[in-house]
Amino acid sequence: MSIDTATAARVAKLARIKVEDDALPALAQEFNTILGFIEQLNEVDVEGIEPMTSVTPQRLKRREDVVTEGDQQDKVLKNAPDAREGFFAVPKVVE
């Protein structure tokens, strides 16, 4: 797949990025480079490989899920500009 300047302009418009006309050929080339790299990744055989979240195996530290320092509603709401009935009050933004 090859990206031309018209497609690069359309992608820029969809992304709401202003790109000058003289910069479109370079942007199209960058897109083509990225797509070439993706094609290389698609050629890699990953059958039987489990997905990873990191290149080094890590186990998240776990802690017991207990409530600590609870019952601080009054202290938290004390700094609120507007609090009603035990909750933060905010302006209505949806009609």
UniProtKB/TrEMBL annotation:
UniProt keyword annotation of Transferase present: yes
- Source domain of life is Bacteria
Molecular function (GO) terms for this protein are: asparaginyl-tRNA synthase (glutamine-hydrolyzing) activity; ATP binding; glutaminyl-tRNA synthase (glutamine-hydrolyzing) activity; transferase activity
Write the Enzyme Commission number(s) for this entry: 6.3.5.-
Pfam families, per this entry?
A: GatC
Keywords assigned by UniProt, alphabetized: ATP-binding, Ligase, Nucleotide-binding, Protein biosynthesis, Transferase
Catalytic activity, as annotated: L-aspartyl-tRNA(Asn) + L-glutamine + ATP + H2O = L-asparaginyl-tRNA(Asn) + L-glutamate + ADP + phosphate + 2 H(+); L-glutamyl-tRNA(Gln) + L-glutamine + ATP + H2O = L-glutaminyl-tRNA(Gln) + L-glutamate + ADP + phosphate + H(+)
Question: Which GO terms fall under biological process for this protein?
Answer: glutaminyl-tRNAGln biosynthesis via transamidation; regulation of translational fidelity; translation
Cross-referenced InterPro entries? Asp/Glu-ADT_sf_sub_c, GatC
Work out whether the entry's keyword set contains Protease: no
Biological function:
Allows the formation of correctly charged Asn-tRNA(Asn) or Gln-tRNA(Gln) through the transamidation of misacylated Asp-tRNA(Asn) or Glu-tRNA(Gln) in organisms which lack either or both of asparaginyl-tRNA or glutaminyl-tRNA synthetases. The reaction takes place in the presence of glutamine and ATP through an activated phospho-Asp-tRNA(Asn) or phospho-Glu-tRNA(Gln).
Q: Which family does it belong to?
A: Belongs to the GatC family.
**What's the name of the protein?**
Aspartyl/glutamyl-tRNA(Asn/Gln) amidotransferase subunit C
Source organism? Pseudooceanicola atlanticus
